[in-house]
Amino acid sequence: MRTPIAVTIAGSDSSGGAGIQADLKTFAAFGVYGASVITALTAQNTQGVKAIQDVPPEFIAAQMDAVFSDLAVGAVKIGMLSQPAVIAAVAAGLDRHEQTDVVLDPVMVAASGDRLLVPEAIEVLRRELIPRALVITPNLPEAAALLDAAPAANESEMRDQAERLLALGPRAVLIKGGHSDAPESVDIFFDGTVELRLPAPRIDTSNTHGTGCTLSSAIAAGLAKGLKLVEAIGEAKAYVTLAIAGADRLTIGSGHGPVHHFHAWWR
After folding, report:
1. How many Cβ atoms sit within 10 Å of the Cβ of residue 230?
2. What pTM was estimated for this model as a whole?
3. Which domains does the chain possess?
């Protein structure tokens, strides 16, 4: 039986709550072997991002070539890509290694409010990477930035923005509603044919660091295990909801702590 393998292409979070570290924890929680391509180093903790060191594009390409030439990769999750040249290198690597089951989380701003993507990279992201994605998973501010629009204020506007994002070339869109003020956290999925409303109870906690990274990597894990996209999204949503619900069982730092990736195992 082949071991399911997923690769995360993202930035490192030195506090362990988001980025590469959150992705690898999520893969492990799903029983998927995780490999990584690091695009940036961040010096951060639960209070914010202190510094960012970008990895040279040619070294990102070398990591991709090393991993994809040897491992039978079932799915790819892409997170923080801070510079236009980095985005171009990742897009070229996906083409070189014929990777199509790609979950793109267009990370632009950390939960602390710190910007992780330079403004001039947004157009490169639209042009070079979004059309290569199986699904993109923006939150409300990210969807708005990709469309040069105001953030969706309700589910109707989320559906409209999902349709407009689909026109940029991905095969499906999942807009996350966690930033809304509604009593439920509702995500909207649209692939041009199927539209789904994915609700979850809004959980009263400030420990939500890494939520977006965790959701996108959970989707990739499901794809690596052979699930269809809609099934993978459903399992990922359920997992993240429980990870947020269990977050206050951890005591990590003095700011926005992480979700509990191992809520089902740690007692």
Report:
1. 16
2. 0.95
3. 5-249 (3.40.1190.20)
